[in-house]
Amino acid sequence: MLGGGGPVVSADSVGRKADLSESRKKRVAIVGAGPSGMFCAAALLRSGKGVRIDILERLALPYGLVRYGVAPDHLEIRRVTRQFDRVLADGAVSLRTGVQVGESPSVEKLRREYDAVVLAMGADRHRRLGISGEDLPGSYDAGAFVGWYNGHPDFADRRFDLGVDTAVVIGNGNVAIDMARILGRSPRELAGTDLAPAARELLAASRIRRVIVVGRRGPVQASFTPVELRELTEMERAMPVCDASELALDEASRREAEALTGQGRAALDRLISYAVPVRAEAEAEVRIEFRFLCSPIEIVGRGKVESVRLCRNRLVGEPGDLRAEPTAETETILCGLVLRSIGYQADPMTGVPFDEVRCVIPNGEGRVDGQPGLYVTGWSAYGARGLIGTAKKHATAVAGAVLTDMQAT
Ligand code: NAP
Q1: Sign of CA dihedral 246, 247, 251, 255
Q2: What is the DSSP track for 94-133?
Q3: Which tens digits make up the pLDDT trace of 95-112?
Q4: Distances, alpha carbon 292 to alpha carbons 181, 188, 243, 277, 353, in Å
């Protein structure tokens, strides 16, 4: 299990004597104890500049996406929390939980009280498909499903009907493949994960035998990593499959594929290998099927999800910038569960500028436009993309900007 659940450290609440050197120390508030906020705090501490850091978190427990987003069977990635535990154990850092910055305190108030304020709230809102039936019972966004199985308090009371035969996962990102894998795991595999206990119980009793992962573009444009794709071939009772016809490439995709190297090439090769079953059909209790060039146009059902209607797409544009365009060809897939995994967006925050088109807080290298002393890092700075290393690199650079600016004042 993840750490960071111990008593909240608060410099003020332990009544530390404010000696002169202490009162001269620069004070930084970090809003959000997710990976970006924690990496930023770690970098500020590492600088040795004697900065005091208050981390303000909305939830009762820290570590954001590492606790509530990273797949519960990816224990290796979750181990980064050990580093975060060390940050919180540092006497210069205090964590205040249950604090809703923007409402109380306002960002304005924080800016008055601290030498620098770093916003690291992430991007919680899931994008919408904007199609009929999207909100039928049985159709959920990935944030709710992933949050639920990871024990996120906002989703703990959600109920999912896993007594259905077929689930359709919309999207070809890392979150989509995480959910497909969790749905395919055997009870024994689930037992060795960080799943929330209630979710583990329900998933172990799941009757889902078909998981269909639907991408609006082709296999070359999917964002799966080779490691994620290999994992599917090593599962106890699930088998990835992809009909060879789904893997046929148009001319522009062929050119994109030829330019692929490293991870991208390895991922495509792995997807192509799915055309040959990795085990006998009879041995695969759960099939994880990959479909490409399809977009949902309607989720259908009387009172709950019964099917999803897809349209066939073709790709238009130049290699490297191909977009999906619908054709007149449609098909219907019978299913009882639809998981929509088409990415996240940040929400605007009172008193902070917001770019409504890119859904980010406008900034230059983490410095919020026109707001001296206010910084932003993580998904609310550059959009909901990138792996944990991306967050670390950005947060470390923003910590550098904070220190440079504080030194100049
Ligand atoms: P994502 O990577 O942005 O993927 C979103 C997927 O949804 C894409 O395949 C996109 O297709 C598709 N999509 C978007 N709009 C759509 C629409 N209207 N209809 C149909 N499909 C649509 O989002 P994500 O999977 O939520 O991941 C978010 C970030 O978290 C990513 O940076 C990811 O790498 C990271 N993450 C990392 C890990 C890990 O480290 N293992 C795990 C989970 C998440 P197009 O490509 O055509 O736009």
Answers
A1: positive
A2: EEEES-BTTTBS-HHHHHHHSSEEEE-----EEP----BT
A3: 999 999 998 899 999 999
A4: 18, 31, 10, 18, 38
Q: Are strands 337-340 and 166-170 parallel, antiparallel or unpaired?
A: parallel
Distance 48 CA to ligand 1 centre (A): 37
Distance 58 CA to ligand 1 centre (A): 25
Tell the residue nearest (CA) to atom 25 of ligand 1.
Answer: 173
pLDDT over 70, % of the chain:
94
The number of the ligand 1 atom at minimal distance from the alpha carbon of 217 is 47
Nearest CA residue ID for atom 16, ligand 1 = 342
Residue 1 alpha carbon to ligand 1 centre in Å: 26
Whether this prediction's pTM lies above 0.90 is answered by: yes
Query: Model confidence over 297-316: pLDDT tens digits?
Result: 999 999 999 999 999 999 99
pLDDT in tens, 25-75: 899 999 999 999 999 999 999 999 999 999 999 999 999 999 999 999 999
- For 299, the enclosing helix (H) or strand (E) is strand 294-300
Task: Yes or no: say if 171 and 140 are a contact pair by the CB < 8 Å rule.
Answer: no
Give the SS3 label for residue 156: coil
